[in-house]
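Reading group handout, session on sequence-to-structure problems. Before we discuss, look at one worked example. The prompt was deliberately terse, the way you'd type it at a terminal:

> structure Lipoprotein

The input record follows.
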Amino acid sequence: MKAKVWKGVWALCVVAVTMASCDFVNKMKENATTTPSDTIIGANAGELDGKIDELLELAKAKKETAEFAEIYTYFNYKPGDPSTSVTIQIVTPEDKNKMAEYSWYDNKDVRNKLDKQDMVISDHDDNVIDTYDGFKDMLFTYDDVAKQVENLPVFCKEALEASGYGEDGYVRSYQIEKGDAFIMVGHKSSNMLSKTYHVAEDGEHIIVKE
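And the output record:
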C-alpha cells in the first residue's frame, strides 16, 4: 500500500524530550542567544544545516543514514515577540517501521525548546500505514537535498525580491519534501498576504514565473 497523505494525527501519548542527554541539553542552553532570531532559521549560511544536526543528535540518528520525510523551518513575524522553529520528520533509528517528528522552538518566553512527537501515517482512505515498505516512497536522504538546505540564504533573497513586498516582506517558511522544496514570503501587514515559490530541481535558485 502506497502512502499518499500525511495525516495531522499524533499518537495519544506525546513524548517529551526526556531522552536527550544532559550534555546535549546543556549545550543547547549555552548556545541560547539573548533574544530570539528576527528572521527564519536558515536565512544565514549554515543555520539550517546546524539546526538539523542538533535535531539528529537528539534523535540519536546519523546524518549519513537518516531517512527524512520533511524538513521545515518557520518564522512567525510578531513585532516584539517573534518566534522561530525547525522540525524534521524521520524514520526512527530504533524502529524503521515508525516515524517521529523532532522539533526546536524559540521565542522570548520559551527558549530553545526541544520536542519529539510520534507520528501516525495514513493513505487517502484513512488506512493506517505502519510499515516501512508502506511509506518508503516518501523518504529522502540528506545528500538528496544538501543543495536545497545550503542555498536557503539565496532563496530567501530571491523570494523577497520576487514578492515585490519590499521592506514589508519577510520569509515565513521553507519546506523540503521528496522531489520538491518551496519557500513562502509573508507580508508584515497581514497573515493573509503571502507568495510561494518552488525551488528549481538543481537546487540553485527559485522558480519565478513571468
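Points for discussion. First: Confidence is low (pLDDT under 50) at residues 1-30. Second: The helical segments are 22-30, 47-59, 132-135, 142-150, 152-163.
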